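Late entry, magnesium ion complex.
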Amino acid sequence: MKILTVANRKGGAGKSTCAAHIGVEAVKNNIKTILIDMDPQKTLEMWWKKRENNQPALIDASSDNLPHILEKLADSFDLCIIDTPGDASLNAIVSIKLADIVVIPSKPTAPDLTAIGRTISIVEENKKRFIFIITQITVRTKAAIQAASVLSRFGALAPASISNRISYANAMGTGSSATLNDKIALEEISQVWDFIKSIIFSDQAIPKKKLHMDNM
Ligand SMILES: Nc1ncnc2c1ncn2[C@@H]1O[C@H](COP(=O)(O)OP(=O)(O)OP(=O)(O)O)[C@@H](O)[C@H]1O
Ligand SMILES: [Mg+2]
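Prediction complete; structure with ligand written out below:
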């Protein structure tokens, strides 16, 4: 079982939205997936409790028992997605330490980009592979293009960004996925998933692709 931890010390970066949508996309691609919500705010768990579909599954864990829980899940699942709080608490750190890959969502704003160094430091200190996903963009803004350029200097960037769309916010409120009725959300989440899939099930270094500004 591979462990994908979604982390960013900045609040509201889009961590829980990414965790939920990547989870649904993984299940659609026949990956046995389980979610763990390590954030005391429980945004991901609240979304999951509203779902009619019981896939992806979700299980409770704490910083104390997370290693043990992951060991127990390893025979039954292909992928575990861990959502973390937007801080440097033990819950966030332990989740990063146990990850095979860390997904770092970030909004393309100056305050978010300025703060991202703290998250990169924790991930690099723990020698973890990581990728960035730019979230909540309003299409092709200068800010989004600048963010892509800044982030790609530090690591690999997902080939598609997540737009700021009401379908994502609605999905989080109703236990659904934006990809069910929003073609643009479907297109971007599938591209993000294909990229994650291509790296998480291999141990190779993550390729730094040339920036495709068309998708930003
Ligand atoms: N792509 C998007 N389009 C529209 N709204 C979004 C999008 N992504 C996130 N949001 C909204 O922004 C807010 C923060 O998103 P989310 O909860 O995913 O961030 P987070 O990083 O998990 O926050 P926290 O640090 O508080 O856990 C939520 O209200 C969510 O519905
Ligand atoms: Mg969250």
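Helices lie at 15-28, 43-49, 66-73, 90-97, 110-125, 142-154, 166-174, 183-200. Will revisit in the morning.
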